[in-house]
Amino acid sequence: MVQLQNYINGLLVPAANGQYLPNIEPATGQVFSQIPASDAQDVTQAVRAAEAALPAWRRLPAEERGRLLVRIAELIERDLEPLAQAESQDNGKPVSLARTVDIPRAASNFAFFGTAAQHFASETHFQEGVALNYTVRHPLGVVACISPWNLPLYLFTWKIAPALAAGCCVVAKPSEVTPYTAFLLSELCLEAGLPAGVLNIVHGTGPVVGQALVEHPSVKAISFTGGTKTGEHIARTAAPMFKKLSLELGGKNPNLIFADCDLAEAVRTSLRSSFANQGQICLCGSRIFIERSIYEPFKEQFLAGVAGLTVGDPQAADTSQGALVSEAHLEKVLSYIELAHQEGGTLLAGGQRVQVAGRCAGGYFLQPTVFEGLAPDCRVNREEIFGPVVTLTPFDTEEQVLAWANGTEYGLAATIWTRDLNRAHRVAHALHSGIVWINTWLHRDLRTPFGGMKNSGVGREGGLEALRFFTEPQSITVKL
Ligand code: NDP
């Protein structure tokens, strides 16, 4: 049984209380590792270590900080296969997905911010003959990074890398549900020679470790990705202490499929945006709105694609759908399938738990599920399910589909499918979504601002936005 450790002050250590929590492999339902059940004592030690490391780290030239981050990226690339296997075992996702998306992106996050630190410039405002105004961006200090279970190493590193690049020291908490690759990352940081205390990783539950981090007076900022309710709770705790907050929260993303689209491509990509990672990506499109004249052909081709998806052992090469992350999450998704029936939906595909034979007999598998006939404002079409469940709805006009697309409390991402360039831009501008993809999905350029509107979040990650978040601007004026 693998026993994970905290990474505090450059050492791999157990929780101060000596306690462990079981970590379950979703594909089998069996405990496969133990994680430290840390508490506020460990958080305090980690924050102290980060404070002690801060003066030297922030003074280090950006090129040297960058070189260390690029070294970590290289080590992640070297360990691509064991990291992909670990991510798949911990999360239930197909190992093929971890190998091609999660782990390469974790390496890119470090490489991108390692080099971005060297291109980060501050502004100068020159008033002819009067004054020179320039801006210095100071690292905020000790910051907290808290990440969810759906893209474990991918999202963990998406926060840590810019914080370190900006000259902050970090105390990070991965989700207790998927802690394994964060532990492997701590081993790689030791190998890379990252100075002690610059990055600290404390394992444990959200209400204990996460809460202690958010409450700690020395933590200057919190970069959080997770559910909207948790984000709200964090904001309520942190706001009276005037901490800086970046909150990446839930979504209920629409796909808008217009009749003039490339239908085959819209179907192919909508299958991915519906069921990639078992629908457990905040950017997945779960409400598919189709212009009425192509509703039937879209539905027919989409359902044929769903029938071709293989639910099974995440380790198998032909598996496209792995396990959901936990039994509790599976139960939550099943409760929404039940609700969809109650709300009058017609089940077109799936809807049932899948019993996989052999080593995965106890795993948390679910068929990819499609409903039609649900009202655009019913609960299933408004609340985040975060699983392999999508709805199909025909629409008649652009105004109608925009009203439906914008009709939830969320505003994270949307896709538009059309060959009409004018419409594409017009509709994109009218959508209340932080991210809009036209004729594509999940295309990412790490320089672009990433984040949601409305209850999908506050602030933006990515590129310069992330480096700005982890720094405090200071204006200095020199009289000429
Ligand atoms: P949660 O909000 O449950 O958890 C996110 C993280 O917060 C976990 O590390 C969790 O710890 C921790 N946490 C829980 N309670 C507290 C607390 N009181 N104080 C501090 N930290 C706490 O989200 P999930 O892990 O269930 O992730 C799924 C959600 O994440 C979905 O809503 C999804 O949309 C959203 N998400 C948003 C993204 C975006 O970019 N906008 C991207 C990916 C996901 P632990 O798990 O150990 O209890």
UniProtKB/TrEMBL annotation:
The keyword NAD applies. Belongs to the aldehyde dehydrogenase family. This is Aldehyde dehydrogenase. Residues 17-475 form the Aldehyde dehydrogenase domain. The keyword NAD applies. InterPro entries: Ald_DH/histidinol_DH, Ald_DH_C, Ald_DH_CS_CYS, Ald_DH_CS_GLU, Ald_DH_N, Aldehyde_DH_dom. Pfam families: Aldedh. The lineage of its organism: Bacteria, Pseudomonadati, Bacteroidota, Cytophagia, Cytophagales. Keywords: NAD, Oxidoreductase. The active site is at E248. Signal peptide: none annotated. It comes from Hymenobacter guriensis.
